[in-house]
Amino acid sequence: MKEQYGVMVCGHGSRDTGAVEEFQAVAQGLKERLPQYETDWGFLEFATPVIRTGLDALRAKGIRKVLAVPGMLFAAGHAKNDIPSVLNAYQAQNPELEISYARELGIDLKLIRAAGERVEDALQKAGDGVSREDTLLVVVGRGASDPDANSNVAKVTRMLWEGLGLGWAETAYSGVTFPLVEPGLEHATRLGYKRIVVFPYFLFTGILVQRIYHYTDIVAAKHPEIEFIKASYLNDHPLVLDTFAERVEEIRNGENNMNCQLCKYREQFLGFENEVGLRQESHHHHVEGVGTGTDESSDAVEDAHSHVHEHSHDHNHNHGHHPYPHADHPLGPVTLEEKSGKSGAE
């Protein structure tokens, strides 16, 4: 018999059909790991069902205590602001419901092992022609205007580098912050390594992962003397599902502590001091429930959205977040200007 608790898996959402399907597969895998709970899922933006639809389904089944889990690796604006805003608004409209919010997946040794296996798989497919000492790893994170989330990607890089015994490692990001993928890879080519492994530290596919692989191909074409290898992202690795299940049980066990000591909204973070105490609220209402699609205009919208989040208010995408202080860094989004004829934030 199922318990009175329900699990709500809250995803970001994507216009990429593959990304949506992969998220749903992970949510289904979590449901199978936690058969004692009713489980549903929804997205913040760009896809359906939206989060409130999943909450409606749980409430219709008689669930009155919801354990909500953010389907995200790190706690940046989406996990800290946008999803809690949606959950709080829903609970205010349905006072009979009690919603408890889990922490993000974060730095977890199970995820490091899963990431290590993805890199190992790529190395095995490439063969033994190049030693580990002559191999450089580039870990690519999503990129955010939250330095805490960005620093977590760098920590993952170091743990993989040391754990796998590779020659060197660098960190790059797919958007918002710096260095972006192409300048990060160009820098890596100057370090003298024979092989470069590019690993997107992402849960699911989508436009950002496709962009990472695209820029890998561009840089590889310029440097035929270096072997470039594209490792797979995390996806539904069993250890990913184990980590999600653990976050759910943390709520029940009273161990659900999000890392607030390094939160730029609560403490003075170097370079972000004026963001302490800012109001935290969701800005996704204008794209909530927009379905997936494959046309280029749809892709462009998400591409713009991924770059503009929380760092630019100059291109008709003012979502109410504080401007990212390094939006014009020469290794950041401005590097896209000369290629597209547009601002890197578009």
Q: In words, what does this structure look like?
A:
The chain has a domain at 5-106 and 237-253: Rossmann fold (3-Layer(aba) Sandwich). The radius of gyration is 20 Å and the shape is globular. It has a four-stranded parallel beta sheet, with helices on both faces. The chain has 346 residues and is α/β, with parallel strands linked by helices. The protein is 40% helix and 13% strand. Helix 1 (17-33) crosses helix 8, helix 4 (109-126) packs across helix 5 (147-164) and helix 6 packs parallel to helix 7.
Task: Summarize the structure in short.
With 346 residues, the chain is of the alpha/beta class.
Walk me through the topology.
Blueprint (H helix, E strand, L loop, with lengths): L4 E7 L5 H17 L4 E6 L7 H10 L4 E6 L6 H17 L4 E4 L7 H18 L8 E7 L5 H18 L3 E6 L7 H9 L5 E6 L6 H16 L4 E4 L7 H16 L42 H13 L28 H4 L6
Parallel strand pairs: 1-2, 1-3, 3-4, 5-6, 5-7, 7-8
Helix pairs in contact: 1-8, 4-5, 4-8, 6-7
Major beta sheet, strand line-up: 2-1-3-4
Tell me what the CATH architecture of the domain at 5-106 and 237-253 is: 3-Layer(aba) Sandwich
CATH topology of the domain at 5-106 and 237-253: Rossmann fold
The first-level CATH class of the domain at 5-106 and 237-253 is given as: Alpha Beta
Rounded radius of gyration (Å): 20 Å
| Unreliable segments of 5+ consecutive residues | 294-320, 342-346
Taking the sheet with the most strands, its summary is:
4 strands, parallel
Number of strands: 8
**Proportion in β-strands:** 5-15%
Outline type: globular
- The residue fraction in helices comes out at 25-40%
Structural class label: alpha/beta
Distance between the termini: 50 Å
Oligomeric status: single chain
Question: Helix segment count?
Answer: 10
